[in-house]
Design goal:
By secondary structure, the protein is an alpha/beta fold. It is 44% helix and 14% strand. The protein folds into four domains: 127 residues, Rossmann fold, CATH 3.40.50; 159 residues, P-loop containing nucleotide triphosphate hydrolases (Rossmann fold); 74 residues, Helicase, Ruva Protein, domain 3; 41 residues, Arc Repressor Mutant, subunit A (Orthogonal Bundle).
């Protein structure tokens, strides 16, 4: 995702630490970064200079921190320059308001605390979209804008062929694959090669939604629908209207969520909380999961009729260990990105290093390879990456295995008791850290919480 240092960025936030952090991060990616603490100076700045991208905080220090300050200034910016590309910076609690801002004209939003890679990806996407507007060449079906799926293996070639065939259709797509195989990348490629490419692509992490948040997040709500509902807010379905809605980790949602989602997909309309009036929605649905969804359906843990709705077409992504020849290609690609990012010479790979990388099982798939290369670039001493520059943790070094670890136990114990004891021991080992325990168990945090509740741990 490396780009030349072109473009100018304005960052508006009243926190000095945020301004400093973003300036340090962005100055290696663009030609100019201007920071401003006081939003009252915004219009004056914009009258003197045109910026390619504006990062705008949603909450400034005032009597009420509701995110409305960000919406107000977004409108002011767009009144001044209707083609301005604005990326909002929001806290997790204001995500729903940030979704509303997309309909107000914002390009995208990022959530504090942000992940640097995700923020830079959003920036580069915005710069490329801006470049497309300037050239008068909007993305057309079949044209890749920022998504690039790298690989030359036969397994990946089959996936790319499927994407080309499926993207221009309106078919709902279910993407299956292990963690780190690139499910969201495929979803974005399907969107960008579709006839909806110029419309919104809205992504939802279903695994992070509780039952209480599910309806308000996806369907929206009306003012007064519940305590703190001070204004109407559209849900993700409405935000994606005309475009693509990507439901990630769909295999983790509860039976009650499944029933509500099925109703919306059947009727193609949502009813916001606090309203009796359904709102029609026109979306192309793409879903993804790393859960064994058909096994869940066989155990009546996932509705079969919902599977039929979400998988008109199915794409199963191969794990990296089955993509013969792609490890070296991807390693060199990531090495170039992270060398430039860290102001280092792009390194070579010693033959023994390539052999080590090719022999590794990559249980974390492409994401694990990406992190391994970044770590090696940072720590390496010379211009050639050696085998010792890649030291895998015990978890990474282990071959791919069933998600739930097995321990020696009485074979007469019920399977549920074995699972309960395994979870208890892993949590104890990680001193109660749920995130670390979930990672070791090969579960999402949400899935682990469900098991904790199930087994009363």
């Amino acid at each position: 995702m490396a780009t030349g240092k072109t473009g100018s960025v304005l960052v508006v936030d009243d926190e000095s630490d945020v301004l400093f952090a973003l300036k340090m991060l962005l100055k290696t990616e663009v030609k100019e970064v201007v920071t401003e603490k006081n939003p009252d100076n915004l219009l004056s700045l914009l009258s003197k200079q045109k910026f390619d991208v504006i990062f705008l905080d949603m909450n400034f220090k005032s009597a009420l921190n509701t995110g409305n300050e960000g919406i107000f200034w977004l409108r002011q910016i767009l009144e001044k320059d209707k083609d301005a590309t604005v990326i909002l910076i929001t806290a997790y609690g204001d995500v729903e308001l940030a979704v509303k801002s997309l309909k107000q004209g914002a390009y995208d939003f990022i959530v504090k605390p942000w992940h640097n890679d995700k923020l830079l990806e959003t920036l580069h996407n915005a710069l490329q979209a801006k470049s497309g507007k300037k050239s008068g060449k909007p993305a057309a079906p079949g044209a890749v804008t920022h998504t690039s799926i790298l690989g030359q293996s036969e397994a990946l070639h089959d996936i790319l062929h499927k994407i080309e065939k499926i993207a221009p259709t309106e078919a709902n797509v279910l993407i299956l694959g292990e963690n780190g195989t690139g499910k969201e990348l495929v979803a974005r490629a399907l969107h960008e090669k579709s006839f909806r490419a110029t419309k919104p692509f809205v992504s939802v992490d279903m695994g992070s939604l509780t039952d209480s948040l599910f309806e308000s997040e996806l369907f929206g709500y009306k003012k007064g629908a519940f305590t703190d509902a001070r204004e109407d807010r559209p849900g993700r379905f409405e935000a994606a209207n005309g475009g693509t809605l990507f439901l990630d980790e769909i295999g983790n949602i509860s039976p009650s969520m499944q029933a509500k989602l099925l109703t919306v997909l059947q009727n193609r309309q949502v009813t916001p909380l606090g309203s009796n009036t359904p709102v029609p929605v026109d979306i192309r649905l793409i879903s993804a999961t790393n859960e064994p969804i058909y096994e869940l359906a066989a155990k009546n843990l996932f509705r079969k009729d919902l599977i039929y709705r979400i998988n008109t077409v199915e794409i199963t992504l191969p794990p990296l260990r089955q993509r013969h020849g792609d490890v070296e290609l991807l390693a060199r690609h990531f090495a170039e990105i992270y060398a430039r990012k860290n102001h280092k010479q792009v390194p070579e790979f010693a033959p023994a290093t390539l052999q080590k990388l090719n022999q590794h099982s990559w249980p974390g798939n492409v994401r694990e390879l990406q992190h391994a290369v970044e770590r090696a670039i940072i720590l390496a001493e010379g211009p050639v990456l050696q085998p010792q520059d890649f030291n895998f943790s015990p978890m990474e070094a282990a071959p791919a295995a069933p998600a739930m670890p097995i321990f020696a136990a009485d074979t007469s114990m019920p399977l549920s008791e074995i699972e309960r004891e395994t979870i208890r021991r892993v949590i104890e080992k990680n001193k109660g850290n749920i995130s670390k325990a979930a990672k070791e168990l090969g579960l999402t945090r949400t899935a682990l919480y469900r098991r904790l509740n199930k087994y009363d741990i």
